[in-house]
Write a structure and sequence with these properties.
The protein is an alpha+beta fold and about 375 residues long. It has two domains: about 15-235, 3-Layer(aba) Sandwich (Rossmann fold), CATH 3.40.50.300; about 245-360, OB fold (Dihydrolipoamide Acetyltransferase, E2P). The protein is about 25% helix and about 30% strand. The protein has nine helices and 21 strands. The strands form five sheets. It has a six-stranded mixed beta sheet with strand order 6-7-8-3-9-10, sandwiched between helices. α6 (about 175-195) links the parallel β7 and β8. α3 crosses α4 (about 120-130), α3 (about 105-115) runs parallel beside α5 (about 145-160) and α4 packs across α5 (about 145-160). The longest helix has 18 residues, at about 175-195. The radius of gyration is 25 Å and the shape is elongated. The structure holds adenosine-5'-diphosphate and magnesium ion. The site of magnesium ion (MG) has 2 residues, from α1.
Length: about 375
Amino acid sequence: MNSPAIGATGARVELVDLCKRYGTAEPPAVDSIALDIQPGEFITLLGPSGSGKTTTLNMIVGFTEPTSGRIELNGKDISRTPAHKRNFGMVFQNYALFPHLTVAQNVAFPLRERKVPAAQSAKLVGDALELVDLGGMGNRRPHELSGGQQQRVALARAVVFSPSVLLLDEPLSALDRKLRQSLQREIKRLHDELGLTFVFVTHDQDEAMTLSDRIAIFDHGKIVAVGTPAELYHRPTTQFVARFLGESNVFAGRYRSADVYEWNDRKWTVRETGDGTENQALIVRPERLQVAFDEESVPSGSNVAPAAVTDVSFYGTYYRIELAFDDNSTGMAVLPVGAPAVVDPGTRVIAHWRPEDQVLVSQ
Ligand code: ADP
Ligand code: MG
């Protein structure tokens, strides 16, 4: 007989026109979202507080009933399936361990609920604790562990019964920065080893960027963008997405035609139409913005925006230069150390970039 082992095939989870209203007077907490989560994918729901991330996760796991729409698991509607029959793992921000149980008893809890025989359970618990580097800690109580270790116990408990989907609701938000980074790596490794579908919630954009295959950006109960971290960073379609994921120089000018963008009496080259409307902003990421001291030294074909340097900070491998553009908007450039342009605050400069390094975004 095969010995029991942790691990399952990741499932496909599809959200179809999913809505949740808590009260008829309030706007929907989740407003007609659609999302097709692939088997084994690491997808992150990213958005500001109150944007509907937790409500979405709770509907997927089965704690919250959708007002309308449906959830499909491998093509089968599970919208009305009780949580315990969905067999999904869940990890919360506050660990939610049982304080009076040992670490091993905590991890064994889902197996007891599923009436797994003792010997098999002991083997699975041992494997799960090894998986999160807590082998040998099984007899401790939660209060004898650090916050990071407690969250590892919660992770072990969430995967010990080989769920096909693991849902994580801001699991690292209570930890300090260093611990958060080490647990991020741990979670990524767990994902790669187990092959489960991970649905991860965070409001931390860096965390979302480093962990995810794809990110779904939430705003006011809606999914406003879905894509890989690189797609969303380099080709955002709205100002909200551009501002939410990374930093941008945002130029509020007018899109005139497929050749011309007007900003502060300047005419810039554009090679895209965006959504076609006049009222689009043009954004340039800080590492794509160059700085020159006069317009003559700007490569031909570049778009230019005169600015004053307001601050320069040194970060070891790069300089960060804060800028005030001539329309009084502010921006920034990130220049590698060793670049000739080391400037002092107050210096007048010409910010410039290539048209292919800009993006038109909707309001
Ligand atoms: P997030 O996790 O993105 O911070 P939530 O899903 O928790 O967002 O909340 C979305 C909206 O739904 C918020 O306006 C919140 O106040 C509301 N909400 C969440 N849970 C409940 C509840 N149990 N009853 C009433 N309103 C709720
Ligand atoms: Mg939340």
